[in-house]
Fold:
Amino acid sequence: MTDPALRAFAALLPDGDLSCAVSDALERGGALSAAFRPVWPGARLLGPAVTVRTFGTDLSAVFSAIDTAPAGSVLVIDSHGVTNSAFWGERTTRAAQARGLAGAVIDGGCRDVSAVRRLQFPVFSTAVTPNAGLGGAHGAVNVPVAPGGQPVLPGDLVVADENGVVIVPRARIPGVLAAVEALLAAEQALLARTASAADLQPGPAE
Structure:
């Protein structure tokens, strides 16, 4: 990542639970629905979104996105909630790794879970199914999408870990980073000085 804000965010990812702090910085919002779950335990990702809008069970746009996505980006695939066909699997994982992509978020199905886990490629999806998607020539790349009803534009920041997936609008990335750093510092200071239930209660949303 060349953007300083993205590098700073990436440095926070290994600590775990970054999505929670990012959601807090977004006025306790920004998360995709709870249906988005990691395909394998411990998966986490962070990077700018390359968006994909599929058509029916046609996954050709996914391969088009992989071929053109910059290294470090995250594919956000809006399959309109299709869960009986997979839009990701071992072949897409290997192609994405060869391009240096950071992960994939799918409003739809994933397959080849053992291979994806073995390859340690972060994938978050709303379903797992052995049914493969079909080839074709439909769909679009780098267009506005709304996986799970949450608007995502190309270049928005995607943060995901075992808590879920959070989207940071591109224009808000620097401000959210500053808020996250302040929140994490305040939380560490609070936890260091008290274990009182009363003191640890969250305050009202800003």
The first strand starts at residue 37 and ends at 38. The chain has one domain: 4-194.
